[in-house]
Amino acid sequence: MSESSKGSPLAFGQVVIGPPGSGKTTYCHGMQEFMGRIGRKVAVVNLDPANEGMPYSCAVDISELITLSDVMENLKLGPNGGLIYCMEYLEANFDWLQEKLAAFRGHYYLFDCPGQVELYTHHDALKNVFAQLAKWNFRLAAVHLVDSHYCTDPGKFISVLCTSLSTMLHVELPHVNVLSKMDLIEQYGKLAFNLDYYTEVLDLSYLVDHLASDPFFRNYRRLNAKLVEVIEDYSLVSFVPLNVQDKDSMRQVMQAVDKANGCSFGDQEHRSLEALMSAAVGADFHFTSTLAVQEKYVQSQDKTVEEEVMDM
Ligand SMILES: Nc1nc2c(ncn2[C@@H]2O[C@H](COP(=O)(O)OP(=O)(O)OP(=O)(O)O)[C@@H](O)[C@H]2O)c(=O)[nH]1
C-alpha cells in the first residue's frame, strides 16, 4: 500500500459529518443529484457501517468491509463500541479503501459518515482516515450538519455551538457548518431571534440573558456566560442554512464548500449552473439570503426578543 500518493491527480470532495439523524444521508443523495445536473461526476462513499438501503447510488460501501451488526453480534459490543471498532478496522484497512476509491478517479467524492459525535470531538480513527485521504491527494472540506430545530432552544443551541467548535478543532479540515432541515425549523417552537443571529452567531450575550429568564437556567448563568465566551474568543463558528429540496439552498452550500476545499470545475459547469438556476427564478426557489430563508421558513412574529432588547 502506498502511504502517500504525491503523483496522484487532485481529487475534490466533502466529508459529510454530524450527529445522528441530522440529515447526512439525505444531503448526500440531494447533493449527488444536484451536482449531477450541473455535470459533475459524483461518487458517494458510504463510511457508515450502520447504513442500509441508502437512497443514493453508492460507489463504495464500507459494509463490503465490515458491518455494525456483525461486529455487535460477534464481539458482543453495543452500538457505540461497535461503531468505534468499525472505524478502527477501517483505519487498519486503508489499502481496501484506496483500491475502492481508485476505481472512481476523476469523480467528485461525497463521504457519508457515521453520526456518533465522539468520532468528531475526540476519537482519532476517522480523523486519521481523513488525514490519509489528504495524503492520497484528496482535497476535502468537512460539511457538518446540525438539525436547525436546535435554534429554538437557547440551551441546546449553546451545546450545538460547543460541539461544532470542538469538531472544527478536532477534525482539522476546512469546515462548513450547515443548519439542516430549514423547512422544519420552527416545528418545535419559535425562534427568539432573527435567523441571521443564529447563522452568523452574533453577540451571544443576548442568548445568555434570554436563557437566564428561565428559572432553571438562571443558576447556570455564569457557566453559560463562560461557554459563550470560549465560542466568541475562537470566532470560528457560523452556519449556512439548508433545505435539501431547494436548489438555491443547495447551490449556496455547494459554493461555500467549493470555496473551502478550493474546488473549481471551470466555465462549462458555471454555464450549467446558471441554466439550472435560471429555471428556478420566479418559481419556488428564492434563497439568496438568510433573510429570504427567514421569510420562507420562520413565521413572522409581532416582535422577536432581539427587537425587544433593542427597544429597551
Ligand atoms: N423535512 C426534512 N426532512 C429531512 C431533511 N433532511 C433529512 N430529513 C429527514 O431526517 C431524517 C434523518 O435523515 P438522514 O439523512 O437519515 O440522517 P443521517 O444524519 O444520515 O442519520 P444517521 O445515519 O442515523 O446518522 C430522515 O427521515 C430524513 O427524511 C430536510 O431537509 N427536511
UniProtKB/TrEMBL annotation:
InterPro entries for this protein: Gpn, Gpn2, P-loop_NTPase
GO cellular component, one term: cytoplasm
Swiss-Prot/TrEMBL keywords: GTP-binding, Hydrolase, Nucleotide-binding
Gene3D superfamilies: P-loop containing nucleotide triphosphate hydrolases (3.40.50.300)
Record GO terms (molecular function): GTP binding; GTPase activity
Claim: Oxidoreductase is one of the keywords in the record: no
Family statement: Belongs to the GPN-loop GTPase family.
Protein name (database record): GPN-loop GTPase 2
Organism per entry: Meleagris gallopavo
Lineage of source species: Eukaryota, Metazoa, Chordata, Craniata, Vertebrata
Name of the gene: GPN2
